[in-house]
Amino acid sequence: MVAFGGNALLRAGQKGTFAEQMANVEEACRGLLPLLEQGCGLVIGHGNGPQVGNALLRHEAGAAQFGLQAMPMDFCGAETQGSIAYMIETAMERVLKQARISRPVVSLVTRVEVAADDPAFENPTKPVGPYYKECPSDGATYRADPAGRGWRKVVASPKPLAISNIELIEQLARQGYIVVCTGGGGIPVVRDENGRHGVEAVIDKDLACSLAAAKMHADEFRIMTDVPKVCINFHKPGEKALDRLTLDEARKYLADGEFAEGSMAPKIRAAISFLESGGKECIISETTITSC
């Protein structure tokens, strides 16, 4: 199981054009060639932060200028899952052809179940969408940006509990398909007497991919990000890059506050969760974390 970080799709300083994103995705896919050349089964998850933010902007602009109905967060998540999966499929097929590897690629729009009573719904913290000069009064939750850029909507980030169609995803991967799924952490849904329905939330992509990896009994979980290695004392005196970590060391560094929230901390939690669920090894960029 491989989780593409946001830098695999859209990088700092870029405008976010289709051509830019396709070039970035193709480079990320090319980085997986060593695994494919070994014949490894492969499932790819990905982030969608910039893309879903842009989707929200487009919906709001359409509502303001043309009276179109703005769609909810779960719809925008599904929308970007499809568009990003399309880019990954296209880029991966190109990379496979150049390497003369014959492997089919398939994408699944993935719902991820969360608990309706998850405490995260009582304290939304995940910022999404544009900044506003004044706090909107539309019933949503907004918070002032610490950097003074205005007000921004915040939504819950609940814990993922179940991945829809995970048995099928595993089956396809073990049959040789390269599967793209769990985009943006999955479309968040809750269950009631009528089935499952979407909610205004954003699931952490690394945690969702970690859960998928555990449920598929994956041997290895990789998180691709824009730093070469996990570090302690990051950007501080005594900064140290880590080549290898045990599960106990990862737990201790996390408890000591060595990893920043919104940055490396969620990735370390995802690694810990995978290993605690029976996984053998998690690699974050070039840092290997093992269960012992």
What's this entry about, in short?
By secondary structure, the protein is an alpha/beta fold. Helix content is 36%, strand content 22%. It contains eight helices and 17 strands.
Topology (SSEs and partners):
Layout: E1 2-4, H1 18-30, H2 33-37, E2 42-46, H3 49-66, H4 73-99, E3 105-107, E4 111-113, E5 126-132, E6 142-144, E7 151-155, E8 162-163, H5 166-174, E9 178-180, E10 187-192, E11 195-198, H6 205-215, E12 220-224, E13 231-232, E14 240-241, E15 244-246, H7 247-255, H8 265-276, E16 281-284, E17 287-290
Parallel strand pairs: 1-2, 1-12, 2-9, 3-9, 4-10, 12-16, 15-17
Antiparallel strand pairs: 4-8, 5-7, 6-7, 10-11, 13-14, 16-17
Helix pairs in contact: 1-4, 3-4, 6-8, 7-8
The proportion of residues forming helix, as a percent range, comes to 25-40%
- Report the biggest beta sheet as strand number plus sense, adding barrel if it closes: 8 strands, mixed
C-alpha termini separation: 20 Å
The CATH architecture of the domain at 2-112 and 169-226 can be given as 3-Layer(aba) Sandwich
What Rg do the Cα atoms give? 19 Å
SSE run: EHHEHHEEEEEEHEEEHEEEEHHEE
Strand content: 15-25%
CATH class identity of the domain at 2-112 and 169-226: Alpha Beta
Shape: globular
